[in-house]
Amino acid sequence: MLGGSMASGSLAGSHPVDGRQAFSPEELAVVLSRYDLGWLDAAQAYPHGSRKSPKLLLRRHVNAEQRAGQADEDPDDALELEATGPDTALNAPPDPSLTAAAPAAREQIWLLKRRARGRGGDTRIDFCHAVQRHLAAHRFPIAPLVPNRQGHTACAVGKHRYELFEFINGKTYDQSLESTGQAGRILAVFHQLMRHYDYAADFDPPTHGYHRANAAVRAFNALPTTVLHTDPSVDRVALGTRSQFLREAMNRAADVADAAGLPNWPTQVVHADWHPGNLIFLGQQVAAVIDFDAARVQPRIMDVANGALQFSITGGSEDLSTWPANLDEGRFKRFLRGYDVVPGAVLSRAELRVLPHLMIEALIAECVIPIAATGRFARTPGAIFLEMIERKVRWLHDHADALFRAVDA
Prior knowledge:
This protein is an alpha+beta fold. It has helices at about 5, 25-30, 65-70, 120-135, 175-195, 215-230, 235-260, 300-310, 330-340, 350-375, 380-400, 400-405, and strands spanning about 40-45, 55-60, 105-115, 155, 160-165, 270, 280, 285-290, 295-300, 375, 380.
């Protein structure tokens, strides 16, 4: 049950803001009736992550007797955090406004999430939840899923599916070398835990990703029309030339990976969305990994390449023309060294050699797909964003051998 804010019809976040979908009070009442949370004192919109997936923080005051009971629980539960993260993964400088203050000890907080549609339906949700249960059983730091009254971690109401997670605040990635190394290390731990996970008996998870992504091919076909529709003043010739360069760069990078044998390398469950927004930190340690919606089966190097890109990419001010083309090579090396320190997880020379080329593929696919859909990347006009991406792709291509030598030790 929810207290006065809903009863009065003034639920925070009940109306769409900045294009984000939102819960209606009626929807929230039905969903919460499926859970045994007791009397809730507040529901607060949590405007992070996908705009298609609304989220709410649900708060309940905990009295002294309840707190005393909680003190006897497993202390490792303190590592568990909320399970959401921004879809826009490029690593711009941390925004202090996105780091919420730590909740008071007298509060219990959950995060309610309506899953975005088009993610594979109930079978895909069941797979993602099975992965999380496997990780939790091995004490890997994730956000605990809260079962509903029927004991299910996915709650179906009409055409929508909902998830509820325990929530404990942490901090965002600070771009330090220590935090970067820890991000690489925890990815290796994740891969080791999932290496022999037997999913085949119960699930048929997706295997496609950014490598030779059909969605990226379709995006390039739609890109000029969408960008010009959003901003008719864009130089058509320059846009066409840039689009063609990025398409060819993506294909060349894919050819290198295939020639090295990528299609025949062993596969396993990977996270497939390893970026700073999906890791929560306490100090410079990874306290929780969140958002397993993209989990799938691929060679592990696909995950590593995306992570190395996301944790070493350089940004800057709102003026993207000032963003440097180069990666932060210190963070790039520290991420991979962090990965290699985990026993049994050392990357092979073949994997390291294709790494920069997979980073090119990941960077291009990450950008062209949303730009082709909306003409923009987040709030940035697509033509401006593509110009910045071209500079970074050229740098990665020119420095691929140097990046390999830097980590081939």
